[in-house]
Amino acid sequence: MEIVRREPAGGDLADFRARGLRARDALKGNLEGPELERYVEERVLTTTLEKALNWARGNALFPATFGLACCAIEMMSIVAARVDVARFGFEAFRASPRQADLLILSGRVSIKMAPVVRRIYDQMLEPKWAIAMGACSSSMGVFNNYAIVPADKFMPVDVHVPGCPPRPEALMHGILKLRQMIQQEPDLGWRKRYGAEGTEEIVTDAGRLAASAINVAQAGSSPGA
Amino acid sequence: MPDATGLELLAQDLREAHPDAVADTVFFRDKGTLVVGPARIGDVLQFLKGRGFTFLASVHGVDYYPEEPRLGVHYELLDMREVDRLTVKLRVPTGDPVVPSVTPEWPTADHQEREVYDMFGVVFDGHPDLRRILMPEDYEGFPQRRDFPIGGEPILFTEHAAQGTDYTLGTNVADPEKLATTGEQ
Amino acid sequence: MATTEEPRTAAVDVSSIDHAVSPSDVYGTHDELLTLNMGPHHPATHGVLRLLTVLEGEVVRDVKPIIGYVHTGIEKTCEDKSYWKVVPVIERMDYLAYYFNAMAYCGAVERLLDLEVPKRAQYLRVIHLELCRIMSHMVWMGTGALDLGAISIFWYCFRERETILDLFEMSSGQRMHTRYIQVGGVMEDIPTGFVEKCRAFCRTMPGRMDDVAAILTKNEIVLARLRDVCPLDAQTLLDYGVTGPLLRAAGNPWDLRKAEPYSSYDDFDFKIPIGAQGDNYDRFAVRLAEVYESVKIIEQALDGLPEGPYITEDRKVRLPPRHELATSMEALIHHFKLVTEGFRVPPGEVYFPIEGPRGEYGCFVRSDGSSKPARVHMRDPSFVNLQAFPPMVKDAYIADLIATLAMLDPVLGGIDR
Question: CB–CB of C417 and B143 under 8 A?
Fold first, then answer.
């Protein structure tokens, strides 16, 4: 067996010795004054209670099992192994709304189901968030008819995830955006990031349509349709 | 499928058994259809059951607007032994949309007749529990009739946002006339 | 709370649960029935199904399913769109068997048009349909095992599902609701690499299913929960209009792929697994065996995949290939007409049945000569199979009701449409 002497990395021997003495004093409870302050600074993270709470809330979301239609299958996919939501700690889907704090509305909300959804949302305890997953719950989606209602009409939604159905990665992105929002670092979008505010171009009806233009996609305005 | 002559023979036998049952026969794309009078549907299906068509695959409704009589009910029959399919069709007007229910002899028609009632308004006489199945119980109107509007929300564009649209209500706060609709009529 | 009755001790030795003993023999009949609502939001109902159960103790005396909570008016929406634009909408009915919805509809429209589908397109359709069937059974098995408590099966099955969805993404660009099957054929030819990847899947899939079978088929708990639980004989099932694996589990080998072959299914050699008793275990075993048969069909289809067009040549029905739009005036006109108005279909009514993972999908299309269908109706098997649910679970325990619902494989999108 060979004993190897190595130089301590990052600093000379005297500094190492001084740190060792300070550590021994700390363990004995002998540190005082500025030395004590520096010791504490090196080891303890200071923050406000609010921020700490939000950090904890964001990392401990319990989604409610609210699969309605096709998007529910992709929501089940995020629990599966490829897009593993357990990486982030959100794998505990709670069946009871009293125990859940995130409602992922996955699927089309019919007019018969809307009061039920609202009731489940009301049964959840504060703080609670809602993600409208898929096109059908965010807007009417593929179906624009008498039978369904967009979620914004009867409950507040925090994040809309577009797609029909959104890929599991897209839903994951939506959940992570929600987490950012909860931790009070909301992503304000690409216009802010690239300094592109004020570049939106609003086109009014006056400039867009000529009087004689025919909308061929509208029912009844083209022959034989 | 019974071919065209088989269909005619079947219709003939049916006319002998129940004289006023068969109104018409149609043979289209290798499949036969019997058009029957609404009041005799139970007898017709029993007769066909005796002929081997023991499986009722589907009961569904059709709105033939603007032809009269407007509402149709189709019964898809299947003979599993001979692998034959046959459609039995009946038409009722909206003024008197009453059809005897076949649920007592064909339990599979239970939910399916309720759906036809819900969507088209055809009342099945003798059905054990005729109420709405897909729409809410207190819904008014029969959605799948051709003159029922398709409904839906108007599509909102960015310019409407600039004009101050409340997208939860779908109205333009400043000027309700200026809102574009989907044109779904 | 009954205080005057003597304390109830188990009259049966609970170490061996014997389903041959009727619960009412053990506990006697009570006077009090409890109506319990298993509401639309429930972890064990597969989707938004509401069950009004009438319970006597733990025994189910009656159950009334209430549906309509995901009714989307798809059939009415279809009447407003041109024939080929209906395909994406109608796929979303039974959201686990989307290729089957599209196939039933396209088959009906092709019959109305009297259109012949080229052989290559038929084989491609069969490959994708069987892949979709396997995928549907994977989701069923994953969620069904989840209901029984065998949670690891969920991850195994969803791993296989991810492989299948990769194949779908390769051929059409989308994981779900791919609108790959179009009127006249398929949307696009399969890319290079698809055949190899599909073959690799077919090589590994039986082994993976053997792994899952090793966990489940001889498992004591699975046998106790599924064997002899809620059987229903074939004649009652036929009276209720039940088709598919439920009917095959009861012993009736009715399968439309063999009885009324469509899309070249008669070119392939495969068996129809049937059960003997019609209880929950047979329903489970039949679907598991069907996966092996589907793999065989896919392998045969890949081996025999003919060359040729992947969609009908009739330019009045299919969109012309993109590159022709730059050179051919007729192609441009056809493209314009198809996109704006769509093709017209001669008047008539057709009912086209196919065999899906849950039973007979029959699409009824009525055309009145215009470019939009006048009526589209899908005879969905889950809608009809649900009627057989109350007789299945009568006088069974409520835990057996959950297991039976899992084995029934209802998909609420198809039930409510």
Answer: no
Residue C126 near residue C265, CB atoms below 8 Å: yes
State residue A212 phi and psi, 5-degree precision.
-95, 5
Question: Inter-chain contact C114–B133, Cβ cutoff 8 Å?
Answer: no
Q: Residue C98: is its pLDDT beyond 90?
A: yes
Helix (H) or strand (E) holding B112: helix B109-120
- CA nearest to C175 within chain A: A167
Which one has a higher pLDDT value, B76 or C16? B76
Query: Residues C49, C52, C58, C60: is their CA dihedral positive or negative?
Result: negative
Is residue C67 scored above 70 in pLDDT?
yes
Which is nearest to A216 in space by CA: C341, B185, C317?
C341
Please give the pLDDT value at position A10: 57
Is residue A31 pLDDT above 80, yes or no? no
Most confident by average pLDDT, A20-24, B6-10, C102-106: C102-106
pLDDT confidence of residue B162:
60
Distance CA A72, CA A66 (A): 8
The token pair at C174 is 């989308």
Q: Give the CA distances from residue C8 to residues C13, C34, C54, C207, in Å, rounded to whole numbers and listed in that order.
A: 13, 19, 22, 49
Is the confidence at residue B32, as pLDDT, over 50?
yes
Which of C71, C79, C243 lies at the smallest CB-CB distance from B134?
Answer: C71
Is residue B57 within 8 Å of residue C241, measured between CB atoms? yes
Provide the CA C96 distance to its chain's centre, in angstroms.
6
Q: Is B66 on the interface with A (CB under 8 A)?
A: no
Tokens of C178: 């791919």
Per-residue pLDDT at C2:
40
User: Which pLDDT score, from 0 to 100, does residue A18 have?
Assistant: 76
Residues of A in contact with B185 (CB under 8 A): 219-220
Output phi, psi for A150, to 5 deg. Answer: -75, 150
Amino acid at C409: D
Q: Is residue A121 helix, strand or coil?
A: helix
Give me the residues paired with residue B33 across strands.
Answer: B26, B87
Provide the whole-model pTM.
Answer: 0.84
Nearest Cα to C374, choosing from C382, C364, C361?
C364
Residues of C within 8 A of A85 (CB-CB) are none
Interface of A with B in 132-151 (CB under 8 A): 139-140, 143-147, 150
Three-class HEC string of C123-185: HHHHHHHHHHHHHHHHHHHHHHHHHHCCCHHHHHHHHHHHHHHHHHHHHHCCCCCCCCEECCE
ipTM score here?
A: 0.86
List the chains bordering chain B where 3 or more Cβ pairs fall under 8 Å.
A, C
- The encoded tokens of residue A54 equal 């939000």
CB C279 within 8 A of CB C272: no
Burial class from Cβ neighbours inside 10 Å (0-12, 13-18, 19+) for residue A201 reads exposed
Give the pLDDT mean for B158-163: 64
Spatial CB neighbours of B99, under 8 Å, sequence gap ≥ 6 = B38, B41, B73, B90, B92, B122, B123, B124, B125
Given a contact cutoff of 8 angstroms between Cβ atoms, the answer to whether C74 and C90 are in contact is yes
C-alpha C362/C-alpha C374 separation (Å) is 17
Query: Residue C126 pLDDT more than 90?
Result: yes
